[in-house]
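Entry 0007
Protein: Thioredoxin domain-containing protein
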Amino acid sequence: MKYLLSITLIIITMNVSAQKLNKHTHDTSHNQDILINVCTREGLVTFPQFKEMYEPLYSAYLPDSATMIQLKKLVKSERIKVVLGTWCGDSKVYVPNFFKVLDLIQFKEKNMEIIAVDGHKKAENGVIDGLDIQSVPTFIVYDKKGKELGRIVEHPKTTLEGDLLAILQKKS
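Output (structure tokens):
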């Protein structure tokens, strides 16, 4: 039993270290340090190239209150994947605003996955394989079974909260 527990711990440790969170690398296409692969929100908002714009934009964004009331009623057990570039101007603007919307509707952070890509919109180890990422940021909304409900690509058509509401209204 002790031997089996040791093997299990080794396997878990290997899996965790294989997917290092908040990995820094140098992106030659933009000649700057970036985050790559799966990130935590804390890792993202403290990353120097992202942090400089995050706080002022997050604080200044005022989502439409009527839309937010409707949105809060519709959010259940959806999952959201945020694919961004820490080098990308649109990501630096829209991700803080999107997080503000999610915070105001009390979206569970455990239901969100954040993935940073390089200047070629690629990540390592197949992290974004099959997601068809053409532009960043891309916010992908899934139902609890993993079916994609919709996405906001690069920038909203109306507002972030308006586009998110439209995606969630389609499922109803």
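Curator remark: The CA atoms of residues 55 and 136 lie 20 Å apart. The first strand starts at residue 23 and ends at 27.
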